[in-house]
């Protein structure tokens, strides 16, 4: 009873905060429907005379958003898949197999966790150049996965450490190899960790800007954030296109989030805590 | 579900309960899972174990060595050389680059700005996250709505956030100044991105607007973890809401707060996209961070030796922050 | 019947295969304003003509993602997607950056072999020869002429006109400010644009000779005779004739002010016609005049080489690139471009008998015919450019004074020896 009493005043008190925080979104969407002249009047409180859906059509076509979304999707799937393939076995090995040098290897991975990617960008670029991977989606996937390996290993290892050793002993008696133990015993019960890894690496890859800025030069391979920034600077005088283009760039993920809100939240908190 | 602790990292229960591990054993028979063995693995499997471990780690190790470890070493080497660009050869110059960096006023400026940036980020993004978490966690019916709504900015790429806020801050056409003028507060309009005293702060607001969502979620999880009985005990002692906050809530959040602060600092160090898109370090280097200066040196002026020195500086900062916070967290959990 | 069909199909296949075997692509970086429909039309026409004259060749335009100043050209040359020939903002400062990074080929031989040296203004050829000790790395495509763009209707209504002397100009700025209009719009975040205004102020205060000497390092940049222009900018900002808030704007943000008639004047060159067209501004209303000066003969536009052709060292089609440059330098193409409404600049040689289609371009060409001064952005050595542009930003945001700013520029000039 007393809980419900407290709810509405709090909700009311939060409303101004809600308005302020969501204001940029609202302004952006409303402005994206205005004509260039209406935007030029720069009055944030007027509504567009007509809903200019045309702005969205134009932005999509001129901005080549279809291609950008496609590239981002390929980027995302590549990173998530490769991250799982690399981090799950490695996390298992570090958590459950005793071998010489285990602690040192673990510290080596922690080093990657602390050093920001901006600090290694010059040689990184040269490595990619040497491997002929500059300006390719393959190149950026490899770099982003490598960047995420420390966190991914940390996450999987933390989770696997929490799994009782009994399961391993039991499986060994049954004659299972470590690989089989990993795939048949551990992975099926690792949904929270896998979910966390998938969501965190998916979100950070989709939104990544710095690495694509360095690696992806031509428009054909660029991803969404990079494409939008380039689009905004090229068409900076066409504000109706910049606004509608911006909305196009974040709308899919926001819709996805609202639909899968619970999984996102679980995944992110689990992941941040473990990592 | 409580997860056993690993050294150096205390774990807080997740936002939603995960099913207990013991109930899922895949295809193994129930009889097997009930058996316990004592002691470590048998000795003759340890050599085979090491080999298996290596194979399991090979993909991760391989990628990591080529794309992270190698560049880290190379950056170190590069800082002792002078190079004019990717196609030119490097010549060994010893500590010259370090001396150049020490005498470069922009290096010092960017260092100061980076510290300011970290401070702004922790206070604004962390602070906002805490405040909203305290409020939102009290809600029942509307909690999911508010939590979802407040999290939306976090889903937008920092670069896109930069584009949005650069438009909001436009002194003549942007949302902020035109809204202020319309509601009669025209006197408060500023050159948000042109005023040297305001620019770093303004850009950070955009970055914090994007960042606070995650911290809010972490604080909410932390709040859920505080023992209810402590509140009841305080109630019995006659504590009011404010006292409960100070004596029960905040202490209970100490763990999570440390974690959020360290996370915010590490994220702050990586700050690049918003500054790059909104001001490119300007005007006149007033919003230059270490990361943006690295980019400028490496890709515009093509002075790779000096850029490498800054990279080392950035890495040292990151490592120091991580070590300091790990020690602090270890001390807290005692 | 069947045999006939089979033979003709085989023949067709052979022809297709052979033309495929000869199919070559020339990737061209540029042109800058290809997103503007009129410009696109002109260049697609040029592309078609070249392809017709060189069967089996396809020309592909790579829309620029930036310039040499922001590293985009260097990044493109670095990458595997590298262009084969580049059209971009040039000038000795920018060219030296890519030359020092060994990213572009020397073209000196081609000037001799292919006769390019006779296809540009003689003074231009001499100037280029003198830049890198005889080696030339660019072929000029367009020259710039920077001056003040103003709205004819607003000026007529208020009875204003761009005066001949600086003192009168200061008075004009005051009168404009009183009506609530921004006297001058400037977007210093776009480095080139910052340089346009600043170069004009420098020349107006010191005259063409002095600026030329400063660029040749015969006078120091912090010498009062040279720093005068910087001090003028400082005073304009202090007086509120140029709002400090503009320090955060880029070219598009500032030109938006001008196109929406919230600013009276904007310093730009002939290329601004393309921007105007995109913004829907009526070009018949655009007026142009050089920046006034108290010094006799200094009220002329500033300029220099605006855009040039470069050939990357890793160009996959160096022969085709040279052919393309031949083509661009030919009379036919130059005339075609000069007569096109999308024409945006001054050509690197005299083109007789061609009237520019847009009235404001006529004004610009007329002003430039009397002589063009130096736009320092185009003449300063590479390492100095970044500081030069940052100082301008500092001046507009009120962070630095004119003399201090020029001291910093001079320090970099001395270093760059």
UniProtKB/TrEMBL annotation, chain A:
Intracellular or extracellular location(s): Cell membrane
Keyword Cell membrane included in the entry's annotation: yes
Predominant subcellular localization, coarse grouping: membrane
Transmembrane stretches, start-end: 12-30, 73-92, 104-125, 137-160, 181-203, 241-260
Residues in ABC transmembrane type-1 domain copies: 69-260
Membrane-topology annotation of the record: Multi-pass membrane protein
Keyword tRNA-binding: no
Stored Gene3D superfamilies: MetI-like
Keywords, ordered alphabetically: Cell membrane, Membrane, Transmembrane, Transmembrane helix, Transport
Signal peptide: none
Sequence similarity: Belongs to the binding-protein-dependent transport system permease family.
Protein name per the record: Carbohydrate ABC transporter permease
Phylogenetic lineage: Bacteria, Pseudomonadati, Pseudomonadota, Alphaproteobacteria, Hyphomicrobiales
